[in-house]
Amino acid sequence: MRDYSEQLGDEHRRTFGQFFTHPSVARYMVGWVLESGEQTVFDPAFGLGAFREALPGNPRVGFPACEVDPRIIEYWEQRTGERATFVVSEDYLRS
To answer: For the segment 12-52, what is each residue's pLDDT rounded down to a tens digit?
Structure first.
């Protein structure tokens, strides 16, 4: 997260209301959802991808997500080398 903040600055994060979930919290939440028998984890604010990274390597688990900031998606793709084809560029609250 520090690297992202250094690249784009705090003002950019404030503009998009970006507050990032700690990886341990994301792991707990994803585990809780999957233990219930659900096969989809929806992330309404993708951010730095904490929930995506918390998913087990099960290809049957669906992961749709939304994100309003295209720059954070670019950052995630560069950092992970994975294309974020599962992320819809829209505001979940306004769709």
So the answer is: 777 877 778 999 999 999 999 999 999 999 999 998 899 99
CA dihedral 37, 39, 43, 46 (to 10 degrees): 130
Q: 66 — phi, psi (to 5°)? A: -125, 150
- CATH assignment of the domain containing 24: 3.40.50.150
Cβ burial of 8 (10 Å; 0-12, 13-18, 19+) is middle
Secondary structure (DSSP) of 34-71: HHTT--B--BSS-TT-HHHHHS-S-TTSB--EE-S-HH
If one counts the domains in the chain, the total is 1
3-state DSSP percent of the chain in helix, strand and coil, to 5: 50, 5, 45
Average pLDDT of the segment spanning 48-68: 89
